[in-house]
Design goal:
Pfam families: DUF3247. This is DUF3247 family protein. With about 100 residues, the chain is mainly β. The chain has a single domain, classed as SH3 type barrels (Roll). A five-stranded antiparallel sheet has the order 6-5-2-1-7, with no helix packed on it. A two-stranded antiparallel ribbon has the order 3-4. The longest helix has 12 residues.
Length: about 100
Protein backbone atom coordinates (compact mmCIF):
# COMPACT_ATOMS: atom_id res chain seq x y z
CA UNK A 1 0.00 0.00 0.00
CA UNK A 2 1.29 3.38 -0.96
CA UNK A 3 1.95 6.05 1.65
CA UNK A 4 0.03 8.40 -0.66
CA UNK A 5 -3.70 8.03 0.00
CA UNK A 6 -6.09 8.04 -2.95
CA UNK A 7 -8.01 10.82 -1.18
CA UNK A 8 -7.18 13.30 1.53
CA UNK A 9 -9.72 15.11 3.65
CA UNK A 10 -9.73 18.63 5.02
CA UNK A 11 -13.30 19.49 6.02
CA UNK A 12 -14.31 19.15 9.65
CA UNK A 13 -17.28 17.01 8.59
CA UNK A 14 -15.03 14.49 6.78
CA UNK A 15 -12.51 14.39 9.63
CA UNK A 16 -15.32 13.79 12.15
CA UNK A 17 -16.58 10.88 10.02
CA UNK A 18 -13.11 9.30 9.90
CA UNK A 19 -12.71 9.74 13.67
CA UNK A 20 -16.09 8.07 14.25
CA UNK A 21 -14.92 5.07 12.23
CA UNK A 22 -11.63 4.92 14.13
CA UNK A 23 -13.53 4.64 17.45
CA UNK A 24 -15.04 1.36 16.18
CA UNK A 25 -11.61 -0.12 15.39
CA UNK A 26 -10.32 -1.32 18.76
CA UNK A 27 -7.02 -3.21 18.99
CA UNK A 28 -7.59 -6.93 18.33
CA UNK A 29 -11.20 -6.41 17.17
CA UNK A 30 -12.37 -8.73 14.40
CA UNK A 31 -14.16 -6.65 11.79
CA UNK A 32 -15.60 -6.74 8.31
CA UNK A 33 -15.25 -3.43 6.48
CA UNK A 34 -17.05 -2.43 3.31
CA UNK A 35 -15.28 0.12 1.16
CA UNK A 36 -16.79 2.85 -1.01
CA UNK A 37 -16.15 0.72 -4.11
CA UNK A 38 -18.22 -2.13 -2.62
CA UNK A 39 -15.30 -4.44 -1.85
CA UNK A 40 -15.21 -6.15 1.54
CA UNK A 41 -12.17 -6.87 3.73
CA UNK A 42 -12.28 -8.94 6.91
CA UNK A 43 -9.66 -9.42 9.60
CA UNK A 44 -8.29 -8.48 13.00
CA UNK A 45 -7.30 -4.89 13.76
CA UNK A 46 -3.57 -4.98 14.56
CA UNK A 47 -3.66 -1.52 16.18
CA UNK A 48 -6.25 1.24 16.20
CA UNK A 49 -5.46 3.62 13.33
CA UNK A 50 -4.82 7.28 13.95
CA UNK A 51 -5.75 10.32 11.93
CA UNK A 52 -2.56 11.48 10.22
CA UNK A 53 -1.42 14.21 7.86
CA UNK A 54 -0.63 13.08 4.32
CA UNK A 55 0.17 14.70 1.00
CA UNK A 56 -1.51 13.61 -2.20
CA UNK A 57 0.25 13.20 -5.55
CA UNK A 58 -0.12 16.94 -6.22
CA UNK A 59 1.51 17.84 -2.90
CA UNK A 60 -1.70 19.05 -1.26
CA UNK A 61 -1.92 18.38 2.48
CA UNK A 62 -4.87 16.71 4.20
CA UNK A 63 -5.81 13.87 6.52
CA UNK A 64 -6.62 10.18 6.36
CA UNK A 65 -5.83 7.07 8.42
CA UNK A 66 -4.41 3.67 7.49
CA UNK A 67 -5.92 0.52 8.95
CA UNK A 68 -4.03 -2.76 9.08
CA UNK A 69 -6.19 -5.87 9.25
CA UNK A 70 -4.56 -9.26 9.80
CA UNK A 71 -6.34 -11.88 7.69
CA UNK A 72 -8.12 -14.47 9.87
CA UNK A 73 -7.34 -17.37 7.53
CA UNK A 74 -3.77 -16.25 6.76
CA UNK A 75 -2.47 -14.10 9.66
CA UNK A 76 0.82 -13.47 7.85
CA UNK A 77 -1.13 -11.66 5.12
CA UNK A 78 -2.10 -8.16 6.25
CA UNK A 79 -4.64 -6.00 4.45
CA UNK A 80 -4.20 -2.23 4.45
CA UNK A 81 -7.24 0.01 4.10
CA UNK A 82 -7.62 3.77 4.00
CA UNK A 83 -10.19 4.62 6.69
CA UNK A 84 -11.46 7.51 4.56
CA UNK A 85 -12.61 4.91 2.01
CA UNK A 86 -14.58 2.83 4.54
CA UNK A 87 -18.35 2.93 4.12
CA UNK A 88 -19.35 0.42 6.83
CA UNK A 89 -17.76 -1.45 9.73
CA UNK A 90 -19.26 -4.63 11.13
CA UNK A 91 -17.77 -5.85 14.41
CA UNK A 92 -17.41 -9.64 14.53
CA UNK A 93 -15.83 -10.08 17.98
CA UNK A 94 -12.29 -10.10 19.34
CA UNK A 95 -9.21 -12.12 18.47
Amino acid sequence: MSRIPPRIFTSREDLDAIEQRIVLLDDEARVRVTLDDGSVVEGTVSARPTLEVFRNGDGDEGHNARLRLDDAAQPATPHYVWVGDVRDIERLGTA
